[in-house]
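Exercise: predict the fold of this chain.
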Amino acid sequence: MEIYDIPVTTLAGEPGDLSALRGKVALIVNVASRCGLTPQYAGLERLQEKYGADGFTVAGFPCNQFAGQEPGTSEEIATFCSATYGVSFPLYEKVDVNGPDQHPLYQELVRHPDADGATGDVQWNFEKFLVSRDGQVLGRFRPRVEPEDLTITEAIEAALR
């Protein structure tokens, strides 16, 4: 199964899949509103603004699995992201990224290694997966790697070429 065929629900509650990402370079991120890393939303939005016209998008998947740092409803999450960080990239319904209820998207993503060659569970909020225009995982960046870190921006630019 391609990642584009995996069923998802938008933050607005609309069922669908990730076919809107087909043909784009995407940075898929599990996000949270009450985390020490939440300010990364600002960097994610700057990436969206910088590269969006070139065929890039961030795709945010709220997750409440790490110390309950995303407890809000979909509406509360949308309001927070819009009002606090001006988020314009797509956000999806809250998902589990690890464990027995792991979303099928993350079942696929966590099979791919980070820069040290490690695969497996998402470590914390704001773990990032860079996906090519044809749905291949190009890179995995752990939570503390800032969105605008050179390792990410160079990988985005290379994928957009």
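Check your answer against the key: The mean pLDDT is 97.
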